[in-house]
Each structure stands twice: as C-alpha cells, then as structure tokens.
C-alpha cells in the first residue's frame, strides 16, 4: 500500500462515507470503490480464500477461467473467509494449526479443545470418501517454514 498516496486522498474519510451502506464484502467493496482505477490486482497466492477454493471446485465456468492460476497457486497467504480452522474444518486448516502449534501464542488447552474435537467431528460427519478427498488436498508447493518472533517474521526456505 502506498501510505502517502492514501493520506493525500483522505482514504479513511472516504471509506467512512460508506460505513452505513450495505455491501456484500464490506471492507473489500469499500476499498474497491474508494480506490477505483488505482488498484493493481495481485496473483491469487497473496489472497487465496476458502470462497475462491469452493468456487473453483463447484462452479465449472469459474473453474475454466481461473484453473491455470489456481493450479499454479503456491499460496503465500490463505485468507480464511467463512469457516475458521479453530472452530470448523476448512480448506488447508492443517497449515493454520501447524503454525499455531509452533507460535509463541500456542495454548495447549485451546489446541486440545479445538483441533482434536474438530478431527473427531470430521471423522463422524463425513463419509470415508469425503475425508480422503479433503486430506489429499495439497498446495502446489509446500509453504516455507516461518516463525513469529515477537516483532518480526523470519522464513526458512
């Protein structure tokens, strides 16, 4: 983001003019309206959403349009829209749990309450075929190891 440019255009004030309007994706819709013509779209790997994944496997038209980009998507950022890994099963939840377990914020009781409960729920709620399909999902290339050290991120390739 170009902070000086946003300040110059009174970005916050412009966004607040839309706060009482009804938008499907409030934050993203307002940003797209306020910054119309000034936005460059990033590749999917920087905002891979669970909604995007659902569309890519359920909607044939969408799949054909985005298939190549989705196939080449080695996710850098997974945006958990909708279901969250800590209270429901969702796309690539295993990555969230991996980094949670290795973060300074890990709470063993939270992990046991949520991760193990969700694992049991998956096995009880889904047929074997569906469970197999879910757990075989993998990104095109693995994530690098990354660690949060209070103030900064470090990455290992």
From TrEMBL:
<protein>
    <submittedName>
        <fullName>Uncharacterized protein</fullName>
    </submittedName>
</protein>
<dbReference type="InterPro" id="IPR002495">
    <property type="entry name" value="Glyco_trans_8"/>
</dbReference>
<dbReference type="Pfam" id="PF01501">
    <property type="entry name" value="Glyco_transf_8"/>
</dbReference>
<dbReference type="InterPro" id="IPR029044">
    <property type="entry name" value="Nucleotide-diphossugar_trans"/>
</dbReference>
<dbReference type="GO" id="GO:0016757">
    <property type="term" value="F:glycosyltransferase activity"/>
</dbReference>
